[in-house]
């Protein structure tokens, strides 16, 4: 028996042994659910109606929340795109990952990338018989070598391998599997042609239709509402005539539309509309009952001005993208699974991106192959809270611009430390906005977190906790 077959067999046996557990997952192929993981890009926790947004309309994501389970304590892998997505794929937090910052923030200036030793959640799901696809922003293969999705467990890929090419919504080329293809008629500078988000949705619909009779995992990594702020005028109708003040956007690397507020709201609502389209497609195909749909964001928002908020995109939290305060890493997270989740459920379990890997493995009936930081949150999803394991702590490190900075969440406590500065300590149960620094009041707790920040990471030559400089590639 080869290694792959042995791993599958162990997973099936393991799942069968758990058959008496409340709501347990049957590992037989016919019982495994499809998994669709929809990732927004730079969407704030407070940008969604179910989290209190008043100006931007998100009825479809709000409906997803009504039909599924809302996680109140879910965290992104990082405060920026690249390392957050790497954490999601590998089950490792940024203290252990091989991609801990965006591409140009390394000691050598050379981008870190996945290699032949990297094991992803897609690798694991393929072992369980899943057809795997990623559509949208991969952003983890800057060198387009061994880090490309088709060499990291994905059967199908349509999107961007590199980070910066995903910054434009009228890109003139995209990868389909390992072939770079021209998008005829597209002009990046003139913002003409096919809106890339629409192409992503079309490909997602094709993937679902093609594999509707199989078990599939679709990682739908949208780029909305990441800069650049631009969208066809036809999607601005519900906002363009409102009495909103003009926040004029200046084009540069990002070729923004002029009216920031209208454009941003329209981009979020377009994202919402296509989440609704995907959800309706599943129902129309008759596979919605056995399909898990997850919606979340890779980090905090970029757009809203936290000194003069208009949308209140970070909700009750402090900070935004590139902060390790809650506004930068506390993500909206909704999970719908009609066979297992009671509509309108709320989950307070503390979880993070690196937990998706083991959760997906447990759902599929396989064991993670490598060493990971994640803990499956499946028990809390299916109501088996007494068997839900919890993290001793969650760890992040971030080293761009104002870094290096580290953060830890342990139960109700949150610690943030910028190198060379005193540690900040917050009780999130009493102070979710991180306004009241309790470090002087609890010196013993500070000492505990200082130890955790040392043992919570491994050294990596490209990611020292020293002042870094952006080396443009």
TrEMBL record:
SUPFAM superfamilies: Alkaline phosphatase-like. InterPro entries: Alkaline_phosphatase_core_sf, Sulfatase, Sulfatase_CS, Sulfatase_N. The keyword Cell cycle does not apply. Coiled coil: none annotated. One of its GO terms (molecular function) is arylsulfatase activity. Residues 33-366 form the Sulfatase N-terminal domain. Keywords: Calcium, Hydrolase, Metal-binding. PROSITE patterns: SULFATASE_1. Pfam families: Sulfatase. It comes from the Bacteria. Belongs to the sulfatase family. PANTHER family: ARYLSULFATASE FAMILY MEMBER (PTHR42693), ENDO-4-O-SULFATASE (PTHR42693:SF53). This is Arylsulfatase.
């Amino acid at each position: 028996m080869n290694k792959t077959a042995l791993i599958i067999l162990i997973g099936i046996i393991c799942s069968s042994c758990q058959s008496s557990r409340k709501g347990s997952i049957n590992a037989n192929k016919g019982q495994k659910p499809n998994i669709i993981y929809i990732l927004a890009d730079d969407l704030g926790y407070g940008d969604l109606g179910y989290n209190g947004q008043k100006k931007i309309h998100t009825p479809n994501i709000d409906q997803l929340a009504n039909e599924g389970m809302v996680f109140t304590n879910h965290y992104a892998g990082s405060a920026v795109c690249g390392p957050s997505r790497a954490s999601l794929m590998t089950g490792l937090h940024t203290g252990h990952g091989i991609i801990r910052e965006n591409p140009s923030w390394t000691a050598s200036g050379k981008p870190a990338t996945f290699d032949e030793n990297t094991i992803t959640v897609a690798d694991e799901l393929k072992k369980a018989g899943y057809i795997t696809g990623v559509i949208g922003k991969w952003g983890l293969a800057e060198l387009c070598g061994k880090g490309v999705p088709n060499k990291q467990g994905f059967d199908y890929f349509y999107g961007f391998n590199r980070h910066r090419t995903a910054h434009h919504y009228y890109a003139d080329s995209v990868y389909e599997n390992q072939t770079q293809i021209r998008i005829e008629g597209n002009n990046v500078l003139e913002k003409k042609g096919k809106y890339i988000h629409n192409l992503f949705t079309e490909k997602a619909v094709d993937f679902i239709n093609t594999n509707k009779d199989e078990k599939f995992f679709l990682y739908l990594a949208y780029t909305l509402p990441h800069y650049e702020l631009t969208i066809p005028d036809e999607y601005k109708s519900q906002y363009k005539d409102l009495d909103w003040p003009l926040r004029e956007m200046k084009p540069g690397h990002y070729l923004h539309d002029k009216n920031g507020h209208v454009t941003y709201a329209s981009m979020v609502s377009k994202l919402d509309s296509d989440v609704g389209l995907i959800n309706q497609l599943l129902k129309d195909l008759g596979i919605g009952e056995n399909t898990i749909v997850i919606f979340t964001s890779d980090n905090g928002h970029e757009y809203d001005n936290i000194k003069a908020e208009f949308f209140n995109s970070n909700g009750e939290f402090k900070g935004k993208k590139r902060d390790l305060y809650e506004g930068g890493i506390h993500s909206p997270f909704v999970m719908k699974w009609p066979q297992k989740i009671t509509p309108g459920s709320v989950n307070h379990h503390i979880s993070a991106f690196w937990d998706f890997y083991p959760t997906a493995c447990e759902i599929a009936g396989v064991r993670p192959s490598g060493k990971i930081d994640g803990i499956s949150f499946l028990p809390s999803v299916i109501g088996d809270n007494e068997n839900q394991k919890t993290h001793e702590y969650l760890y992040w490190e971030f080293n761009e611009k104002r870094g290096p900075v580290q953060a830890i969440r342990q139960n109700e406590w949150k610690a943030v430390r910028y190198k060379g500065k005193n540690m900040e300590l917050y009780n999130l149960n009493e102070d979710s906005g991180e306004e009241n620094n309790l470090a002087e009041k609890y010196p013993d707790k500070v000492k505990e977190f200082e130890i955790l920040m040392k043992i919570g990471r491994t050294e990596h030559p490209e990611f020292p906790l020293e002042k870094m400089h952006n080396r443009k590639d």
